[in-house]
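Q: Convert this sequence to structure tokens.
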Amino acid sequence: MQAIELINLESESSPFQALDPLQDARRQLEICNACRYCEGYCSVFPAVHRARSFSDGDIQQLANLCHNCRGCYYACQYTEPHEFDLNVPRVLAEVRQQSWQDHTPPSVMARAFHRHGSAIAVLSIVAMALLLWLMQTGADHAEGFYGLLSHNAMVAIFLPAFGLPLVAIGIGLRRYWRTIGGEKLRLSHLKDAFASAAQMKNLAGGHGDGCNFEDKDRFSHARRHFHQATMIGFLLCFGATGIATLMHYLLNLPAPYSLASLPKLFGISGGVLLSVGTLGLGVLKLKAERHLADARVWGGEMAFIGLLFAVSSTGLALVAAAGTDWLTLMLAIHLGSVLTLFVLMPFSKMVHGFYRLAALIREAQLKPH
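A:
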């Protein structure tokens, strides 16, 4: 209690609103460290309580561990109107966002997307879809997708569009790993991190009852389940593309494929899961209180969810349009959506999965064994 009073006296001379997110996060986490009421809520608070002071790298690590479940805020006795004015979910969201922007080059692109994400995503889809539609002019519909746009043309377009953003993300992750003091990777650390990510353990709440993301008075696993549907759906869609590529090059089995083939089974099931997951996450985000997240990037985060939904829903529509006059248009819109997702990947919330996995690996390294 004495530690909390000292922090209060020190903070009276400086308005919290004027603090940089890293400074404000440090102030709030030091208060949390003195209180310790939320110790069992998620992996963030045990990590907080291991230290007595926090470097900028420590705070970025904690921010990327946080899943913004908001249970700590609703349980806290020092939130507004208390003079401490704690809002740990919001300040960690601000630091988390800042860490992605500062580490991934060029950072100006990330700031632009999170301010004007919806407009950038829509204009990019329209522009790329129009270009891809024009490329199909005079193509033979009877030969299926590759009759409209050849396999070689798709590879020439999508390989750099996928590869270059991955390079940018890799550069950002390397910078982030150095900032948080990451050590040499071990198999046990990777195993712990991937297990936690697959289960989305922190979205289950400290006691396994779920989180309070969309309703402070009710625990729910809805956000966890929608996240899992989105993740599994995306991986299945990616797997469908990978399997089709192997079938094309190694087995000399070019598309189109039947509904019973692995690419179609993976693609359709993945598209359904991805559509359901992103639609559910969007609905929950509309219900949730915005002041408990980084309000500056709300539009960009919704644009990212919408972009994933556009990729999955247009993919399903493309399957349904096979053999119809709508095939050319749907192929252009779907490929335009996928191309937009790839190009904007380093600057959208898509990077949160990479940074959170890195944070989970670092947490595994820091845990006593």
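The mean pLDDT is 86.
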